[in-house]
Specification:
This protein is mostly helical. It contains four helices and no strands. It is flat, with a radius of gyration of 19 Å.
Length: 86
């Protein structure tokens, strides 16, 4: 096992211990892993996110107004078959 993989396992173990120690036991193992991965992205994922944010900021500075939340929400829900919010 590589040192990086061992460090990730130690980090994940601490993450789980902290959540369980706080009484947060409502997460499934898959949900816990997803949450840990979201909070501990790989170097590549982090770089991709930074690049996407820079691109979005450059677009905004160039005058792009983006998509209004209401429009995005409606389209997102329609694509995934999620009922509209009350």
């Amino acid at each position: 096992m590589s040192p990086d993989a061992a460090n990730e396992l130690v980090s994940f173990h601490r993450f789980i211990a902290e959540h369980v120690g706080r009484g947060e036991t409502d997460l499934s193992p898959e949900e816990a892993l997803d949450l840990w991965r979201a909070q501990n992205p790989s170097a590549t994922e982090f770089e991709d996110t930074v690049a996407a944010l820079r691109e979005a900021l450059n677009d905004m500075e160039a005058g792009d107004k983006g998509t209004p939340l209401e429009s995005f929400d409606r389209d997102f829900r329609n694509r995934r078959g999620i009922p509209s919010a009350p």
